[in-house]
Each structure stands twice: as C-alpha cells, then as structure tokens.
Backbone:
C-alpha cells in the first residue's frame, strides 16, 4: 500500500504537467485557428496573403516534378521571372505533410499548406514544455501561456499561413534552449543541437537568425569572458559541432545556392504597402507581449549585476536587440515575443514572492487581451473590411478559374492579387508580392495609370489577359509606387467602369462584381481585329 502511495506521488506531478500542456495546446490551437472562417469557405481553401500563395505554387511544382530546390519563379515578373530568397526546408515540410494527408482528402496539398504552421506552433510548445520541465525552470507555465496567447505568435502560426516564420520560430526556440543548456554546463549533446538548429535556421532565412546568432555570440563574450569561453570550448570539444554547423551550411549552398539581389529604386515606395516593414510602435509591441516587457530589461539587468546570473545577461542582450528591431520593422515581432516568453523564467523570480510575480504577469497581459477582443469582435469599419476581403477572395478565385482552360499567356493584374491568380489559374503574372517582382509591379502600375494600352508593354511582357479591379484603390496604389499622379481617364477606370467602349485590342471575356477580365486581340495592319 505504501509503495502505491509513493508511486502515485511520483506520477502525480507528471500528470499535472501533462494536463497543463494539453490545456495550453487547446488554447494555442484556438488562437492559431481563430481565422478558420476566412480560410475554409465557399468549398475552397484560401491562404492569408500573396506570399503564401507563392509558397504553395512552389510546393505544387514539387509534387508535380519531384522534390527539388526551386531557384527561379517563372510565374511572377513574367516573362523574366525572379530569383527568390525562398528555400526548400518549409517547402519540403509542406510536401511531406501533403503526402500524409493524400489518402484522406483530394485537397491534401491545400490542407497541408493551411495546417503546417499551426502544427509547427504545437511542436514549439511541446518542445519548450519538455525542455522547461526537464530543467525545472520556474514560471515555465507563464512562458508557455504567453506563447499560446500572444497575438503575434498566433499570427506566425496562423491557419492558412504557410510562411517561413513558423518553421523559423521553432528552430530558433530550439537554438536558444540549447544555448541556455550550454551556459548551464550541461551535456555536450546540446552543442550539437545548437549547431544544427542555428544552421537550419540560417537555411530557412539568412537574415534574422544571422543577427540573433551575432547577439548570442556577443553575449557569450560579454557575460562569460573570452578566457572562460575558450576553456569551455577546449574541455568539451568544439570541432565536431562547428563541423556540423559548417556542413549544414555547405549543404544549404549545394541544394539552394546563394541568392542575392539588389533593391529596385521603387522599393521604398512599394514597402509602404507591406505591414511587416512598418513600425508597430510601443502600443503594438505591448499588444504582443504585455506591459511587463517595459520593465523586463531592468529586472534582468538587476539580477545579472546583483546576483551574477550570467543567463540574465544573455536574455537582456537578446531582448534589447529584438525590441529595437521590432520598433523598426514589425517583422521582428515574432522573435521579440519568443525571446521575451523564454526569458520569463529569469525575469519573474526577481519579484521574490510567487503570488506577486503571477499577479504582475497576469495584469500585464491586459493589452494582449484587448488586442484579441479587437480581432475577435471587430468594430464596424474593421468588420466591413474583413467581409470585403473575403468577398474579394471569392470573386478573384472565380475570375482566375475562368482562365484555367484558356490558352497560356501572361496576366497583368493588381500586384497583390498576382500570386493567388497564379495558384487558381496556372497562368503567369507580370506582378507579384516579392520585392524581386518590382520591375513587373512598376510596369503594371504604369499600364493602369495610362490613358491608352501600351502596345509595347503588352507585347514585351507577352500579355494575353488583363484584370480590372475597383479603380480607386488600384490608382491610389499605382500612384504611390510610381511617385506621380495620373492625368485624364486611366485604363484602370476605363476597363472597370465602361462596359461598352472597350479599348482597342482588348476583349472582355469575364466579369463579376469586383473583377473584369480581358483578353488581348491581335490587330491587323488596318486596325481591325484578326
């Protein structure tokens, strides 16, 4: 009997920890899939933005032609195409999930794209829960709770958003956890985990992981000292982990190659349309992490200086770097929330009493709750915009599907719709949503602002189809990108509003509430259609 009681006492903490993880996963999946009505509707699966449609076009090419690196996009900036920064790891992950789902659904590819990010988010939570429990980290439940409910983390792992940030956050979480264990002088295996996760993160995206790795290495020198770091490396062996790191990078270059491209002169004007390239301000940052972020650097610095807690110095360096970069570009918000959440086991103990730490932490989540209220219960203007976006998506799909069985040819359309048109129709577009597509984006903007179709543009770009859309937004966006205003009645207005006087050389082949589709018609020397 006594033995059974002892066994129950040993099992009880494991069961409580497991129950807490299950609850958090349920909460997290609710946060990650709050937008399901925008993804699954009208008997189709819709992705969140243009980059996601481009990603899925890549994966579809893999399924049709075999697993390989796709280094050139022929379907954007047509016919020149682009050389994107996109790499194979996430493509292969989606393709693998698609094969798992193949026996269960004809839409296995689209389902894989829709679900890949929420599943990666669940993987992150499970890994961090196991890591924190194994290390007996204090306030690990606070860390997991913030990761589950942070709006920016939910956006990174959102349903219908197969973008690289989801895989990148998982790899960086593993890398930072391994870094903590290295600093705590744990088993040498963590060195291999660190080397592999940092290298794989750099494979997924060279930009953010490279900066964070630089901050980590700098923190090693500042907090641990050059001599102690060198001694640690000598005693535990650094050659093999570094070799693993360099080996993965070499594999990266062999499979995906090195891709670098300069910025187009219109990049700064175009970037004004990209939300992740704007500053979120302090209000946005607090809505992702809570008010505790404001005093977190002070608490970490106090513990680092007073208690010689070297790991507090590591988290302080990462937190300052991530916060500063997030104020510059919102795209860093994912990594700020990740770093802040993972640093909570070192921040909250500075408040001494657990009840006080939990009270402060929960109260600090007020702006996070307010942000969720805004998303789940949008005001009139936001609700109308949400409905319009869904209606646009349905109408665009209908218009694009009208081209699926027509002869192949280039499409000129508003640039932000181009990846979705490619996905639904299979026809290449002049525009795109990547900065490498800016030559086509600029020429498309000029086309819509002109008063007559530019025959040279239509011929050089091998245009066969022209999309017309609500002209006010199209003209405003084109003027912003070009840095000039339109004069006279533009093509954007003429094609959308005037159903009788179609410009010479174009023939309407489809129309619905929001879109008109025209086909170019070859002209004879005397000006008549051939």
Residues:
């Amino acid at each position: 009997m006594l033995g059974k009681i002892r066994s129950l006492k040993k099992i009880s903490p494991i069961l409580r920890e497991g129950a807490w993880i299950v609850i958090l996963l349920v909460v997290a999946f609710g946060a990650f899939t709050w937008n399901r009505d925008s993804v699954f509707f009208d008997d189709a699966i819709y992705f969140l933005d243009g980059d996601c449609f481009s990603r899925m076009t890549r994966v579809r090419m893999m399924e049709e032609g075999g697993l390989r690196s796709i280094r050139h996009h022929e379907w954007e900036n047509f016919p020149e195409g682009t050389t994107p920064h996109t790499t194979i790891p996430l493509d292969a992950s989606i393709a693998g999930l698609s094969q798992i789902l193949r026996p269960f659904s004809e839409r296995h590819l689209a389902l894989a794209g829709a679900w890949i990010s929420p599943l990666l988010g669940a993987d992150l939570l499970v890994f961090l829960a196991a890591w924190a429990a194994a290390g007996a980290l204090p306030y690990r439940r606070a860390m997991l709770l913030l990761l589950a409910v942070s709006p920016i983390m939910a956006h990174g792992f959102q349903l219908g958003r197969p973008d690289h940030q989801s895989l990148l956050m998982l790899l960086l979480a593993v890398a930072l956890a391994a870094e903590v264990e290295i600093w705590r002088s744990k088993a040498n295996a963590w060195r291999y985990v660190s080397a592999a996760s940092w290298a794989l993160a750099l494979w997924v995206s060279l930009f953010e992981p490279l900066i964070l790795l630089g901050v980590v290495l700098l923190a090693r020198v500042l907090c641990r000292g050059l001599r102690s770091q060198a001694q640690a490396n000598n005693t535990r062996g650094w050659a093999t982990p570094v070799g693993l790191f360099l080996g993965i990078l070499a594999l990266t270059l062999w499979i995906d190659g090195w891709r670098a491209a300069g910025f187009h002169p219109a990049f700064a004007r175009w970037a004004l349309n990209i939300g992740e390239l704007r500053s979120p301000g302090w209000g946005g940052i607090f809505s992702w992490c809570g008010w505790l972020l404001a005093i977190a650097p002070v608490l970490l610095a106090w513990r680092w200086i007073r208690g010689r807690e070297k790991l507090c110095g590591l988290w302080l360096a990462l937190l300052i770097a991530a916060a500063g970069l997030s104020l510059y570009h919102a795209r860093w918000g994912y990594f700020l929330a990740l770093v802040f959440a993972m640093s909570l086991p070192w921040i909250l103990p500075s408040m001494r009493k657990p009840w006080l730490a939990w009270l402060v932490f929960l109260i600090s989540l007020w702006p996070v709750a307010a942000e969720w209220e805004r998303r789940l219960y949008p005001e009139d203007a936001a609700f109308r915009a949400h409905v319009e976006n869904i209606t646009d998506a349905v109408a665009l799909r209908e218009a694009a599907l009208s081209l699926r069985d027509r002869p192949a040819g280039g499409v000129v359309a508003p640039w932000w719709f181009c990846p979705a048109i490619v996905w639904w129709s299979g026809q290449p577009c002049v525009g795109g949503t990547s900065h490498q597509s800016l030559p086509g984006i600029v020429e498309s903007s000029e086309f819509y602002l002109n008063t007559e179709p530019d025959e040279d543009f239509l011929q050089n770009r091998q245009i066969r189809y022209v999309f017309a859309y609500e002209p006010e937004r199209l003209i405003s966006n084109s003027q912003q990108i070009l840095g000039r205003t339109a004069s006279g009645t533009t093509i954007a207005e003429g094609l959308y509003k005037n159903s009788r006087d179609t410009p010479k050389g174009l023939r309407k082949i489809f129309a619905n509430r929001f879109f008109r589709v025209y086909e170019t018609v070859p002209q004879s020397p005397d000006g008549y259609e051939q």
About this structure: The chain has two domains: 2-32+85-376, 381-520. DSSP finds 25 helices and six strands in the chain. Strands lie at 40-41, 44-45, 410-412, 463-468, 506-511, 516-520. The mean pLDDT is 90.
